[in-house]
Amino acid sequence: MKLKSMVFIFLSMLFLVAGCSTTETVESKLTLPEDIPNFVEESDFEKVDWDKKAITFNGNIIGNENKSGVIGADMPSININQKWMWHLWGIENPKETELTVVGFHRETGTVHQILTTGWTIGLGAENNGADAHTPSSVNIPKAGEWAILLYTDGKLFDKLVYEINE
């Protein structure tokens, strides 16, 4: 009888603990910073394909070929200001286009401003085969997998997935 009672108590406690635990994903806990541009949607982060890692092309650009990429993303950038040169393809009027950059850290599910000057920066003319480019200073607050969401003139343009470890 004691064994049955102990098994019953153990199973009851197990069900109680299991019932109290949550199965929320990191994305369901997502909170956008108060000052983030209003066109950035929580649903944009849920659609990140973490298996689609950025690749190197055109010699030293790391990104999604013929869409967007960065020179400098392979340099150490954790908690230091680092120069990144953004390149975008398919931009018709680069000097009239604004680029908004939003960082999403996979492990913590947190959204960060990574440009040191704000969320948004203007684009310049073609460079390195891209239709538009712009230099910037970035600061990545922690190591890990990052999705960098790029918006042009308030519309989601591309998502770059980087492993940033230093």
Round the Cα radius of gyration to an integer and report it. Answer: 21 Å
Number of helices: 2
What does the main sheet amount to?
5 strands, antiparallel
Spans where pLDDT lies below 50 across 5 or more residues: 16-27
Biggest sheet strand line-up: 1-2-3-4-8
C-alpha geometry: globular
Written as H for each helix and E for each strand, in order along the chain, the element string is: HHEEEEEEEEEE
Distance from first to last alpha carbon: 59 Å
Strand content: 25-35%
Proportion of residues in helical segments: 10-25%
Structural class: alpha+beta
- How confident is the prediction overall: mean pLDDT? 88
Q: Could you tell me the number of beta strands?
A: 10
